[in-house]
Amino acid sequence: MAGKAFALLGPTASGKSHLAIEIAERAPVEIVSMDSAQVYRGLDIGTAKPSAEERRRVPHHLVDLLDADRSYSTGRWRADAIAAIRQILAKGRVPLIVGGTMLYYRALVGGLDVLPQADPAVRAEIDADAAARGWPALHAELERVDPKSARRISPGDTQRIQRALEVWRLTGKPLSALQGVTRAELPFALKAFALVPAERELLHERIARRFDAMLKAGLVDELEQLRSRYRLTPGMPSMRAVGYRQVWQYLDGEIGEATMREQAIAATRQLAKRQLTWLRSFREVERIADDARSLALRMGYSFL
User: What sign has the CA pseudo-torsion 299, 27, 302, 295?
Assistant: First the structure.
């Protein structure tokens, strides 16, 4: 293998980005984003995207790749991430993957499942079915054709229900039968670390404070501008991001401001819970304290 890369994982609002930037400002490190929402241009406030000043000080990759009305797959991220890491290593610098999209990390280290690419026509058919019959009916359909996936997917997880039914309609085979059948070696060594908060309540407080700061920074205005710039729908991948979903409902008059805030914070807490569940399944990932010196030493630096 040529070269070594590092990864810093953790739940949302755990302080990953701040820690990574602190190290990258003092070492030959470049950051590779592992965030499925930061790839979209214009989704800045609600994704806690690094500021222009931070990106001037520290090189960031896989941020602002495409417009908010486009789709971006796990497979494309894996290919883009490997390409970015190779470029960083070729310059004699150190890649540090940072983010909380755990599906991306699993795909990076474990390879991609043999699954068909997304088909806009089939997805439109499924969305039309959902509009006519409701997502609970589609989840019941999934139980008939792929009971193993249906047991794993919540009836309220519309994105995953859609994907499982899409795979069935495209291949005639259940998603559960096609997942996990391939593994691909990486062209570099990878060591991963995770920030796992010792106290869940502290993480919850940070999530609430961060969302309040997003609202104060203009999250509602940001989404209004995105909706005027692009032909967006609430079902698009960019608009499924936590926070944007709830603000969309607020702008449509479906919920009030206080309810929007409460639901966004609750949804972010649920996201963090899922991320922590993912992290527990990654046996190779080393848990570290929220401390720049601890991470720097494990990366081979003793300047902190």
Answer: negative
Report d(CA 280, CA 268) in Å as an integer. Answer: 19
Tell the residue number behind the tokens 């909706």, with chain if given.
227
State pLDDT tens for residues 27-69: 999 999 999 999 999 999 999 999 999 999 999 999 999 999 9
Q: What is the value of pTM for the model shown?
A: 0.80
Task: Calculate ∠ Cα 133-122-80, nearest 5°.
Answer: 125
Residues 6+ apart with CB under 8 A from 178: 113, 114, 115, 167, 171
In the chain, list all ranges with CATH 3.40.50.300.
Answer: 4-112+189-298
Residues of the chain with CATH 1.10.20.140: 120-178
- Tokens found for residue 76: 């494309």
CATH class of the domain comprising 120-178: mainly alpha
Are the beta carbons of 195 and 16 closer than 8 angstroms?
yes
Percentage of residues in the chain with pLDDT exceeding 70? 96
- 4-112+189-298 is classed CATH 3.30.1330.10: no
Strands (E), the chain: 4-9, 29-33, 60-61, 94-99, 189-195, 286-288
